[in-house]
Protein 1
Amino acid sequence: MGRRWATVLAGALLLILATAGPAPAAAPITTAIYTADPAALVVDDTLYLYTGHDEAPTGGTNFVMRDWHVYTSTDATTFTDRGAKLSIPNFSWAGADAWAGEVERGADGRYYWYVSINGNGPGWMNIGVAVGDSPLGPFTDAKGGPLISDSTPNSSPLNIDPTVFTDDDGQVYMYWGSYYGLRAAKLNPDMTSINGSVITPSGVTNFWEAPWMFKRNGVYYLAYAANDSGCSQPGYACVRYATASNPLGPWTHRGVVLDQVTSTTNHPAIIEFKGQWYMVYHNASSPGGGDFRRSVTLDKLYWNADGTMQKVVQTTGGNSGPPPGVNLAAGATASTSYVSPWETLGAINDGFVPAGSADRSHGAYGNWNHQGTEWIEYRWPTARSIDRTATYWFDDDQGIDLPASCQVQYWSGSAYVNVPGQSACGVAADTYNVTTFTPVSTTRLRLNITSRPGFSTGVLEWMAFQAGTASTASSTTPTGEAGVPRTAGAGTIRATDSSAPAPDADRITLS
Ligand code: FUB
């Protein structure tokens, strides 16, 4: 039963992938393995991150998760993998799907690790709990069966993603759920049983999954993944948050604290460590990453004076950003020899800064299942003087791969000819490949793309630069300006660097 649902979910995610979603990416805590679903805990001077472990193969279409790892850091920059401290065999009553969890210290001084796991009984996901004498364990099953299952009265449609919070009076609360089904309950002091009934909290707008509860200055906060169109593209999740004056709500929605990321799933852990607050989350931006090959990362989180959170800036890691110069592509009309019906030619000149070659979050040009040489082309109503292009290749680790070679051509007035003095036409992943040439004045520029054997090719962004602007700040010609670039300093250039912290537009003053 559980595996059938897993297949259904994977199918849904696959459909979702065709439309895709997100932003630049932070450096992961590790690239040795893929990690996901972080939970954070501070004990003494150490930050502990409890993560899931993605083991899906390249191109995999389902979660493969068998254990959970613990990472430690004393500076929130360098993390040490302390190993797989908990795994499915630790729960004799379960057999698959080591999904999200969180660790909480009990009143007895022991550490309780609540996890999502697929039990062998009826239904799908359950919440189990393990216990250890230290934050690093060793951990053993604390209950011998699920704490929450599909047979728990008023349980969630999908019983996953527990977040456990201890209030100042010692009362422990657990929130969990997915498929829009947020649930909450009090835990008994034994940390392994529920006190009273399961409630359905109110006011948690557009809750999807992955709740994370904490308290600051007497206010309760609940961050969670939401996947509504107001904050993310179809199939992708952002992180919204709500506040309350009571640990069980009612909650008041406060806005978006983390935009969508490069993986369809999004999963927050918010914590203060050594005086600095952090948003810990995962994305698909590590080399070879994907929706089922995620990487935990973290960025600093800042507060407003009114107790609201500023939207987290996802810092770039390894992506140098678009090259400088006046990009004429935005004012051009794009065409191509072939684009797959489900892909988006318009993606190549929308000015988006990809997080990596697999980042199809703003659409992608792809020509699967054509092989050999295909082309993309820009046309302007009047001639433009151009001396460089920059190409960000699309590579989905499936049918579309980096090309074998490429060649820039221009329209001479009667035919396409190679641009004179062309430098190497780069085919590197995860970066802008800049190709220079002797300036040409033309109404059309073409990029011939030759595939590797057995693969098709794709492009996320193709920039064409006005000659002589290599030292000008990056800019794009605003759409509708008929290709006439605006100059730096005019205040109208749409800079492509969006790394500055920006307050959330729908911020609300806490009362
Ligand atoms: O990693 C498996 C599931 O994906 C988690 O439980 C959800 O929060 C989502 O990240």
Protein 2
Amino acid sequence: MSLHSYIRAMPKVELHVHLEGSVRPTTLLALSHRNKAPLPARTVAELEQWYKFRDFRHFLGIYFAVSRCIRAPEDLELITREFLSGQARQNILHSEVTLTPYTHYVNYGIEFGDQLQAINEARRWAEEELGVTMSLTIDYSREQEVGPSLMVADWAIGGLGNGVSAFGLGGPEVGNPPEKFRAAFERANSAGLPCVPHAGETVGPESVWGALRTLHAARIGHGVRCMEDAELVSELRARQTPLEVCPTSNVCLKIFDSLHTHPLPAMLDEGLFVTINSDDPPMFGTTLTDEYIATADVCTLDVEVVDRLVLNALQASFLTEEKKTRLRNDCVGTFSTLRKRHL
Ligand code: ADE
Ligand code: ZN
């Protein structure tokens, strides 16, 4: 018995995982064929080869080709069902999942309402049949024009209470600072929709400062490059802003050379509010469970820290306080039972 088996069995919560980046490889090949959206890969092995990224730009090109395979609301329902089945198999009881709806609107004219309805079908099915919950972060990709970001903010606001819990910002950080999207984020924040931009991944501290000060981020996607600025670290510690750290993603996209040089242990030592996430799991050859196992091994985390990372994700989620309390009590009870069995 071991910490590995404990991690596999423990209840978990995930805050940073992209729906389009989570399509099962076999399903992606089938969608590519069915929807006549060719990929430079015909087998799972070839997909794995294709998923070797030179840098962030290279990754984004591949990410858009993958997104192009999603052509209809039924495709979104299918990939959400499969995604949530995978989360349930890992004992991930709640997931906050990023969707980039403007891509599907531009590519194939799929209305946001139809996208949301399809995903909500899968969400309700998973809640009833699998006992796992999810909500959506509606994100906007930074390489798009500013204009439509206001429309997408309105889509997200309209979905609040109907499966949407946050508004996000993804895509290429370089050359697209948070300030560019101030208006859309102001609109979301004013409507009571929390904002969770990616920042401090491919750009350094100035991007995280912008996310905090201009976008009023409730959590930061990645945020790992905050460690380059001691004043920013103090600010994030004082605010206890949750950081959605995705260790393997950072290595695959060349933010850090290896898990051994990843700043996660230093972030914990600094008293930052850290959560662990998978980002685009099949594209990075990982799962949330693998992320916990790898970081526990490489960073020699003990079980108390592993438990805390899960409880951090739960606390930083956008579940209601009532649901958080219930889930926290369940998790803490299960942790103590599992410790006796696995450790
Ligand atoms: N979209 C999917 N994965 C992403 C990442 N790691 N950073 C920014 N945008 C993304
Ligand atoms: Zn991401």
